[in-house]
Amino acid sequence: MAKEGQIKNNLALFGGERAVKSQQEDMFKWPIVTDRHEQAVLEVLRAGKMSGFDITKEFEKKYAQLLGREYGLAYHNGTAAILGALYGMGIGVGDEVIVPSLTYWATVTPAYNLGATPVFADVDPDTICIDPKDIEHRITPRTKAIIVVHYAGMPADMDAIIKIAARHNLKILEDCSHAHGALYKGKEAGTFGDASAFSLMTGKSLAIGEGGILFTDDRQVYERAILFGHYIRHDEITLKELKPFAGLPSGGYKHRMHQLSSAFGLVQLELYPKQMEEIDRAMNYFCDLLDDSLGIRPIRPPKGTNTTKGGWYYPHFRYIAQELEGLSLSRFSEGVRAEGSICNPGCNKPLHLHPLFTTMDVYGHGRPTRIAGLDESTKIDKYIEKLPVAESINLRVFEVPWFKRYLPEIIEEHANAYKKVIKNYKALLADDTGKDAEIGGYSSFFSSQKNTQ
Asked: Which one of 3.30.70.920, 3.40.50.150, 3.40.640.10, 3.30.230.10 gives the CATH number of domain 35-266?
């Protein structure tokens, strides 16, 4: 058996040779900008059509057809798309909306703009998506909708959620900002809810620059969303109950997508399926190489289920410290990063603990904004609960490399970085404090995912 000093010398953290040695090519470059993208954007720019909506309408129509939804409505960002979707579904003052605590803040905060109250639910530790078992007991007469987040590309348990919503006559909004192209039992994420919303900003797996989009099959949801923030398109409003209010944005918002983004997006819709296929192949290969390793487990759908992670945005593994004699996640991650790979501990911090949802008075109501739309007798304590999985998840998951290309030799080097640290984990135990530092953040993608060399 090797002595501790010899083991330590084998780890890059203690002066050994790094496992990741190759130049990383374009493994992490995203989005992949082609001549076609550049030409499409230049045509809009030279024609001075940046603030029009003809190209945006073409983008909406094409994306909706590809997704199999009746209507698409483009926005300047994903946050606005979520706000428009909530308004479109009729969410308003005094309503409650059930949301997962583990998500980007933009999933939740648009409810504040409408006077609604978010009610947080816990997540499933195996998927990091909202746990259907923690939804039903949170439903009250005020509950109007469930927001489902397909977190880090992992589709949520839509069968169970749809049954709950049907039993209680609730709307479903899918936040698909992490899950472009992901399949749940063969059906694409974003096609299950009364509405779905996607972020399309540069960091997402279907990236068009800056933008968002709403999808629905419900004409009322679509027209209400137009009324709320797309005043220049009020000629599309046909419903009798909405026509009298056409002319000015009912919400005072201007949500139009910039046409440089929609032009880029039209090209990206054609190229993304092939890009997604390569990402999926690369990520599954990486997971396969590490599937039997001690202390770590890939978070991905079971094989043979026709459920996929699409473009694998923000990929994560689970961490099982007891299999590595209690080695802290922070120390494990430090060891892997020293080998030249990507290993960022944690994910989102749980939102239900943030002051924005416990004490903050955003608009000057004189009490926490979260309950501002409710009866004056309502106390915030009623809405503050313990969510054990969400509160501990940052010690149990970590972000792995998000490969954009299938280059087996380079992927193997990154997998070997993990294997090397796992093989020599005892060397890390000696000076491990046993306590993880503050990890996780309130942004869903706070690491760079760039070449670490």
From this structure: 3.40.640.10
